[in-house]
Design the sequence.
């Protein structure tokens, strides 16, 4: 959003927002202040210092700093010719910026226009441009500088020329890469189809997206150019006396290092302050233009707040929309949310589990008092649309939440032991033999640089401490068990050398390696072909029967749930809205949301009739309405639904629904 | 692997030729060596004789042709200044630069991997913010100033380290530390960025789901995946060092290739300059191949692409 906003430099609100963001970061603020100060010095320096910087005063050579009795110009001491260091610093700021700013601007403009042109058109123009950039970059740049400065005689103008030429490739490459990436995107294609000219498209569509990156590069490059100029001046081939630059001052101070350290110290400090400020500001800008990074930034603050407040209170965080009496924490203490009797056979019991995701706008309650239980050898389908919190629930149960998410309440009991109360070490011991997980995208879930044999053997290495050899032998057995042909030779292959279905088999093999008591499968077949889907589900079913594992199947696919699950828990907007045996729930739903879901599935018996869909869309997790979360889309909603959140209550044998009219639906 | 090598070689030929060509002509633009090597009162005849003796009287094009012919026979000409073979001067200076660059890069990479991984482990934690600030400071300090202040503090005031020379381990400390600061700062940032994205990859979650310890997660799973971008940047930084750390070599009197190059420009010692540039260009070519090999070693997908 912001990235787009920066592309409209005319808008004042955007500028004001940037300014507000800048003020929030004290560090970046200080950096900006330093840069403004340097710029002021550069402009006002000549007025303030006059000819003090160059006027020799042989009666006052080598005055030490921090004496005020000779006027402000001598506050930082004087050099061997009696020239005041402070006045020289001010004057030098002007010289330094007069080289750095034009050099950066020149290379920025030429390099980025050239790069966008090359990237937008591609083909030979791109190739030739990149070759040119290669050549410039592979030329020893300092040597180039020395040679050019000798040809043109050292002066500010020729330094600008050298530095600008040397830095053009940096912008060219960045702009080219971004433009080439945009070239393949739709909106640029569309502009082309409409016959918009090349330059017009670049100006209107490519430049605005590329500009923020380029400006960040330029800020970093400003440091580089400043350092290059001062190095050249230091070596005696940059700015020449009687002009002053910070690098030149350091070089002059070097001669008298032992007697007068301040002559070399202060100009160096000036360089450091300026370059470090530019770097800090550049990384701040990168952080602000990158939405992903900005989000993390916000997390830091709210995460800290949340950790501090946790434990001292269990009430909803301030700003939470929940204000009505909460049915689940009604008098009577923390009764298990699930009305089903938790029996001894229940391997996994999740009770009142709540997860918050920390965002800059405050915590978002993505999982709200979710409860369910699974017996060994049983399959429970956790069913819901994407974004309903089912994956987040699964990750919380497995202890694999991202740092931005946090469990804020509830229990996860594995054979009676609360996993959330365990320390990281105890938790790790249960990861694998206790709770295991099969992930959605098998390609990214397998480490691309390790052989599959290594990855499959890892659980044995970690939990049973077996040798590398033995682990590999066990890995091969596992691969054979999940149906991978030629397992022995394939164990040395890498994930990218397997097909999608085989990769999912490998991932399942990793998960079941230690015969887990609970196996969570998070959309295990979404990325696969239909035929492969069936094979994978069969394999999961076999393993569940063989190992007496409790299987939690997370899916949005009603068909999959109907076919493979014993029981189902339907989730909506972060809560369980209905549970029960799968055939009964699908046969006669007790919640309007389940009804709506079922009605929207094309089926044989509905042939010819209109396919229904639930009106509206699920609420944003950050803005779940008070009362019943489903009421805005519900055909049965009454006044009561807006004020009272329905609790999950029993509606029949082994069934429960979170609806004020659950009983009516059950009896209808 | 051989295909990779061949492709690299072919794509490197053009830049290499351009660099050699550029140095050859640009160097001759800087002025006539006769001005430096003959007295001010030299007669035109003396100048002509000087030019003829050093092969500087032919048209530039034929000079370049002759030069290429000589290089093909591994004859790099003689130094104008010392009348010794140019190759000898260059080969004497090069090991000093290589050793300095090698130690610097080794320490910078090891340090950056440790600090960068620590910073990436908890993004935006206090450790991360301190590491980020220090590394961005390190990446933007002027090395000549650090070198001078180092000399002032450790050599002049405290007397712990020598101010120049190459003998003894103590003499290496200041040059290596000075050279190290910027590559270290840049690499910490690259390693941190790559590790942040590697640590948020699904395979890291899978490793945690297997019960892997955090050390195993970071070093066994994430680091190898994060190595590629760091390796590329480290290669670029090493190129800069091989090209000669002129500033550091000047301050510490280090007899390296960078100082030799600058001196040869100042002295119009064309043969030495050309030989030095050619040798560093070849070294950079070798370095790039080494980086490619490391990429292939780290990532099986690169190996497969190289074989294809």
Sequence:
């Amino acid at each position: 959003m912001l990235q787009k906003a920066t592309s409209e430099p005319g808008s004042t609100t955007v500028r004001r927002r940037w300014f507000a963001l800048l003020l929030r970061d004290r560090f970046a603020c200080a950096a900006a202040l330093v840069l403004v100060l340097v710029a002021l010095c550069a402009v006002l320096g000549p007025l303030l210092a006059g000819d003090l910087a160059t006027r020799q005063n042989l009666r006052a050579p080598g005055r030490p700093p921090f004496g005020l009795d000779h006027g402000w110009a001598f506050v930082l001491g004087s050099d061997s010719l009696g020239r005041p260091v402070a006045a020289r610093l001010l004057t030098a700021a002007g010289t330094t910026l007069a080289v750095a700013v034009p050099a950066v601007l020149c290379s920025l403009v030429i390099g980025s226009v050239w790069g966008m042109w090359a990237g937008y058109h591609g083909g030979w123009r791109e190739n030739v441009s990149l070759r040119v950039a290669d050549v410039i970059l592979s030329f020893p740049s300092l040597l180039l500088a020395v040679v050019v400065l000798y040809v043109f005689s050292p002066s500010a103008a020729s330094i600008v020329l050298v530095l600008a030429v040397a830095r053009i490739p940096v912008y060219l490459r960045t702009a080219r890469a971004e433009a080439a990436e945009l070239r393949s995107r739709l909106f640029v294609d569309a502009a082309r189809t409409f016959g918009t000219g090349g330059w017009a498209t670049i100006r209107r569509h490519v430049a605005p997206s590329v500009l923020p990156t380029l400006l960040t590069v330029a800020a970093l490059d400003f440091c580089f150019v400043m350092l290059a100029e001062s190095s050249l001046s230091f070596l005696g081939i940059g700015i020449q006396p009687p002009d002053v630059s910070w690098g030149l001052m350091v070089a002059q101070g070097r001669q008298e290092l032992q007697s007068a350290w301040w002559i070399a110290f202060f100009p160096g400090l000036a360089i450091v302050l300026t370059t470090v400020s530019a770097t800090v500001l550049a990384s701040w800008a990168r952080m602000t233009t990158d939405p992903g990074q900005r989000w993390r930034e916000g997390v830091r603050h709210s995460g800290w707040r949340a950790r501090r407040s946790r434990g001292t209170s269990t009430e909803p965080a301030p700003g939470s929309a929940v204000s009505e009496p909460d049915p689940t924490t009604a008098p009577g203490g923390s009764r298990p949310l699930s009305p089903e009797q938790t029996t001894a056979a229940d391997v996994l019991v999740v009770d009142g589990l709540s997860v918050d995701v920390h965002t800059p706008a405050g915590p978002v309650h993505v999982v709200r008092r979710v409860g369910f239980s699974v017996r060994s050898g049983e399959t429970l389908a956790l069913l819901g649309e994407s974004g309903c919190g089912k994956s987040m629930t699964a990750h919380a149960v497995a202890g694999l939440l991202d740092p931005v998410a946090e469990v804020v309440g509830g229990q996860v009991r594995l054979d009676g032991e609360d996993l959330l109360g365990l320390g990281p070490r105890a938790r790790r011991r249960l990861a694998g033999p206790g709770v295991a997980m099969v992930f959605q995208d098998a390609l990214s879930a397998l480490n691309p640089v390790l052989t599959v044999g290594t990855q499959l053997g890892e659980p044995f290495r970690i939990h049973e401490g077996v040798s590398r050899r033995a682990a590999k032998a066990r890995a091969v057995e596992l691969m054979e068990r999940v149906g991978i042909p030629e397992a022995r030779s394939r164990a040395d292959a890498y994930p990218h050398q397997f097909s999608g279905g085989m990769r999912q088999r490998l991932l399942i093999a990793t998960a079941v390696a230690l015969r887990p008591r609970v196996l969570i499968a998070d959309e295990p077949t979404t990325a696969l072909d239909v035929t492969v889907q069936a094979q994978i589900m069969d394999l999961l079913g076999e393993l569940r029967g063989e190992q007496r594992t409790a299987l939690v199947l997370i899916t949005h696919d009603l068909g999959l749930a109907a076919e493979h699950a014993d029981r189902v828990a339907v989730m909506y907007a972060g809560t369980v809205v209905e549970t029960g045996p799968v055939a009964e729930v699908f046969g006669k739903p007790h919640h309007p949301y389940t009804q709506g879901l079922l009605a929207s599935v094309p089926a044989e018996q509905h042939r010819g009739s209109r396919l229904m869909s639930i009106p509206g869309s699920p609420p944003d997790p950050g803005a779940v309405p008070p009362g019943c979360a489903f009421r805005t889309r519900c055909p049965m909603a009454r006044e009561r639904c807006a004020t009272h959140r329905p609790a999950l209550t029993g509606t029949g044998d082994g069934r429960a629904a979170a609806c004020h009219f659950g009983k009516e639906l059950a009896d209808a | 692997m051989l295909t990779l090598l061949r492709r690299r070689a072919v794509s490197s030929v053009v830049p290499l030729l351009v660099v050699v060509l550029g140095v050859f002509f640009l160097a001759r633009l800087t002025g006539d060596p006769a001005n430096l090597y003959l007295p001010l009162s030299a007669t035109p005849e003396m100048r002509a004789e000087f030019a003829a003796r050093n092969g500087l009287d032919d048209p530039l094009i034929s000079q370049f042709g002759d030069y290429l012919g000589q290089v093909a026979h591994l004859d790099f000409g003689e130094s104008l200044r010392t009348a010794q073979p140019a190759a000898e001067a260059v080969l004497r200076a090069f090991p000093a630069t290589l050793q300095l660059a090698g130690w610097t890069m080794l320490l910078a990479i090891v340090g950056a991997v440790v600090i960068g991984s620590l910073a990436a482990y908890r993004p935006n934690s206090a450790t991360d913010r301190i590491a980020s600030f220090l590394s961005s400071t390190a990446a933007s300090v002027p090395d000549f100033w650090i070198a001078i202040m180092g000399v002032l503090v450790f050599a002049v005031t405290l007397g712990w380290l020598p101010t120049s020379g190459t003998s003894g381990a103590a003499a290496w400390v200041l040059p290596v530390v000075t050279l190290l600061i910027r590559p270290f700062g840049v690499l910490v940032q690259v390693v941190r960025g790559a590790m942040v994205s590697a640590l948020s990859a699904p395979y890291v979650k899978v490793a945690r789901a297997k019960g892997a310890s955090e050390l195993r997660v970071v070093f066994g799973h994430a680091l190898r995946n994060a190595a590629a971008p760091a390796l590329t940047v480290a290669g670029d930084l090493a190129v800069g060092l091989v090209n000669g750390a002129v500033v550091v070599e000047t301050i510490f009197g280090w007899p390296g290739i960078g100082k030799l190059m600058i001196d040869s420009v100042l002295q119009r010692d064309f043969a030495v300059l050309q030989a030095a540039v050619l040798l560093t260009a070849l070294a950079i070519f070798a370095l790039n191949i080494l980086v490619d090999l490391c990429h292939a070693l780290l990532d099986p997908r690169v190996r497969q692409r190289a074989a294809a």
Observations:
- The mean pLDDT of chain B is 83.
- The radius of gyration of chain B is 24 Å.
